[in-house]
Amino acid sequence: MTPQTLLVIIPDRLSELVSKGEITPRYYNPGNLFQNVHILMVNDDQVNPADLQDTAGDANLTIHNYPTDPHLFYRSLGWRPFFLKGWAEPAVQLAEEIRPALIRCHGNKLNGYLASRIKKALGIPYVVSMHINPDEDIKGRATNRQQRVFLRAMEAVGKVTLRNADLVMPVYQPIVPYLKRMGAERFEVVYNILNEDHLQKKDDYRLHHPVRIISVGRQIREKNPDNIIRAVQGLPDTHLTLVGDGSYHEYLRNLVQELGLQDRVDFRPAVPNSELCRLLPEFDIFAVHTEYWEISKSVLEPLLTGLPVVINRRLGEPVPELEGDFVLKVNNTVEEYAAALKRLIEDDGYREQLGRRAYEHAQEHWSPKKMEARVVEIYRKLMKPA
Known about the structure:
The protein folds into two domains: 5-190, Rossmann fold; 211-366, 3-Layer(aba) Sandwich (Rossmann fold). Helices cover 39% and strands 15% of the residues. It is built from 14 helices and twelve strands. The chain has helices at 14-20, 72-75, 85-98, 110-122, 134-137, 145-164, 176-182, 226-233, 249-258, 273-279, 297-305, 334-346, 348-366, 368-382, and strands at residues 5-10, 36-41, 60-65, 102-106, 126-130, 167-170, 211-216, 238-243, 265-268, 285-288, 309-312, 328-330. The chain has a six-stranded parallel β-sheet with strand order 3-2-1-4-5-6, with helices on one face. The chain has a six-stranded parallel β-sheet with strand order 9-8-7-10-11-12, sandwiched between helices. Helix 4 runs parallel beside helix 6 (145-164), helix 8 packs across helix 12 and helix 11 crosses helix 13.
């Protein structure tokens, strides 16, 4: 049998994922379907392929760079597709050399445009996974004119990618309205494939002393966990671990100092994903604040382990995936977080029931095994015969 090759085109700087420990086995090669995986980074980032081998599973991994020069935006009159054809030509030549059966794009930036040009020239199908709703997470948070001009340009080139893709895979339902507005017709919600090798079921719901509470997420304005910290202050015999980093990190450290909680709050700016997945069942409660219209990886992971989850009702339309009795919802206030945590600490039966409902619901809807099998099925259906 002729070895099958996958070309993955991404905008990410993989060295950052390596430094954060965000490595998921087979992430770029689900089901070990391909014998060769080529990753094309649309930047000049340098990374040791050995540090990423787990993401390619058993496949031979090759990494390429395809940097954009700082004048491309202006030379292409704001990334107009017609004026990007010349820039894309070397990527077409690379694809002709490696002859992939399929192209996968993570995100919809200039990497998606490269995939669309390769398909037009060589007939190689491509799929695009969307990990955010740009209308909500980018455009809705733009703060100046320069950002808005940039986003309009990116949207124009993004339409080409989404309309020509063989399939677009949004990783949660709130992305769908954006896809419809952009004119994408072929899409299917396929949730992130998480770290099945290290996610473990929580079976023991007896409390630790002190009670172990964990919160995971980027420490930014929209995910600011300060009300969780203040809630913990009023709950004796509790300990909070905050995993993550961001622009609010120093503010949160100062807050902990002001409240005199240095002995009861730990900060872990970065934890390798495999380690974090193994650690989650050792905690008693997961608590988080987020205003993003999404179900994030950092929330899916504790649900998949069966950890009781406290999460806020976001400002705006609710997240469809979080509707149900498998999470404990609160308003983003100190009082409501404190009341929810107190209830889970004092009511052993409810705490265990909530955790077990979370596990059952998550395994039914977001099981890594099911998601990986679904992606393999999609790839097999779309890939070009060798």
